[in-house]
Amino acid sequence: MVWLCGTTILSNSKCISFAALAGCAVSGCAIITTGTDQGIRVVTEKNVSGASCTLVDNKGNRSFIPRTPGTTYMTRGNAPLIITCTKPGYKSATVEIDEKLAGATMGNVILGGGIGIIFDASSGAAQRYPDKVVIWMEPEEWPDERARLQWEEEKRAYIQRSVSAEPDHTVHENGDEL
Q: Could you read off the pLDDT of 162-173 as tens digits, one per residue?
């Protein structure tokens, strides 16, 4: 394609209009490629399944996972997201997670000249929650002190392994991104 802006073929005003139209066509990359809703998988540890979890964003939107492990969908752009899991015999566990910049958003800066980032930011498509949240559920009662100490050590080791591993956009119970 030959650009003929500034010549007799396309006037400058038509060229600017064409460029603006082309910018709008390629903008909103994250909206197009990832949408504004996102699946979030919640897993409860240590060997705890069947916990029920409620997810609430800062606008009061709620989602419910009846049994872990499970996945639900939330609208992005409304962080922080509060996740609370409960199960009889275990202490309630609550995690607050924030969003990070979605990868497709950088396409807006490159291709759309920043126009698309405005659309993505206003729709929530520019942000992304972690794909997976791991929550450690602590028993309400321990058979003995040794069992409690072992659980704490396993949790600590899990967090250390996760932090030193390659980031996979996972959040564990204390809210640190892995």
A: 877 755 545 555
- Stated pTM of the model: 0.63
**What's the per-residue H, E or C state across 105-159?**
HHHHHHHCCCHHHHHHHHHCCCEECCCEEEEECCECCCCCHHHHHHHHHHHHHHH
Distance CA 87, CA 176 (A): 23
Q: What is the pLDDT of residues 36-74, one digit of tens each?
A: 688 999 999 988 999 999 999 999 999 999 999 999 998
Domain range annotation of the chain: 12-172
Q: Classify strands 37-45 and 70-75 as parallel, antiparallel or unpaired.
A: antiparallel
How far is C-alpha 116 from the geometric centre of its chain's CA atoms? 20
Instruction: Give dist(CA 14, CA 115) in Å, integer.
Output: 19
- Cis preceding-peptide flag for 139 (omega within 30 of 0): no
